[in-house]
Amino acid sequence: MKRILLALCVGVPFAVAGPISFGIKGGVPFTDAFNAAKSGQLSFLTTNHHWTLGPELDLNLPLGFAIEVDALYQRVNYSSTVNLAGSVTDSRTTANSWDFPLLLKWRFAPGPFRPYVAVGPTFNGLTNLNQVTTFFSPGSSNPGGPVGAPPQVKRQVNTGFTLGAGVQLLGHISPEVRYTRWGWDSIRDVSGLLKTNPNQVQFLVGFTF
């Protein structure tokens, strides 16, 4: 009887899981999207929203392998301040950031709790980029502006290499830690005080059906 119960516990997740699994994945980044600094009269500040969310699709393969494709959304923004002889210029830049990981996963242990590793490329795209600048003059109680201006973008598409590790629980819940190393800067200021963070670390949880 015990052997029958054990076989059911181990076999149910595999019986439920089909060749294709759909779901949702969300989590929090441990790193900011940008590296920001200040020097003299110019300063940058990154104020990102610390959550990410999007759909997940898994193609389950034999021998514990799977291919995972995600579309993870995150809102990113940064601000800059220039102070010259009392005249202050404040700029705020916002954008929608989309990560599209294409990962090969290997679940290397059978049963209801299956550790796994993941590796593959991640593509990032920035959309709805917008920058608003406000001017403050000495002796004036009202700011001038705001005025829209294009942000300092080098390229709107980026590519990185991703490594991940996690555990698949009961066939449907997958907490993991994911690291991505980006290939280049999407946004970089000419001063060098602001640039894309080349390292991205996230804690994510996926729910598939």
Strand order of the largest sheet: 1-5-6-8-9-11-12-14
**Radius of gyration computed on alpha carbons:** 22 Å
The helix/strand order is HEEEEEEEEEEEEEE
Distance between the termini: 29 Å
Report the top-level CATH class. Mainly Beta
Describe the overall structure.
The chain is mainly β and 209 residues long. It has a single domain, classed as Porin. It has one helix at residues 2-16; strands spanning 20-29, 34-36, 38-39, 42-46, 52-60, 65-70, 72-84, 87-107, 113-136, 144-149, 157-169, 173-182, 194-196, 199-208. An 8-stranded antiparallel beta barrel has the order 1-5-6-8-9-11-12-14. Residues 1-16 have low confidence and may be disordered.
Name a few traits of the molecule.
single chain; 209 residues; mainly beta; Porin; two-stranded antiparallel ribbon; 1 helix; 65% strand; disordered N terminus
What order do the helices and strands come in, and which of them pair?
Blueprint: H1 2-16, E1 20-29, E2 34-36, E3 38-39, E4 42-46, E5 52-60, E6 65-70, E7 72-84, E8 87-107, E9 113-136, E10 144-149, E11 157-169, E12 173-182, E13 194-196, E14 199-208
How would you concisely characterize the structure shown here?
Helices cover 7% and strands 65% of the residues. The protein is mainly β and 209 residues long.
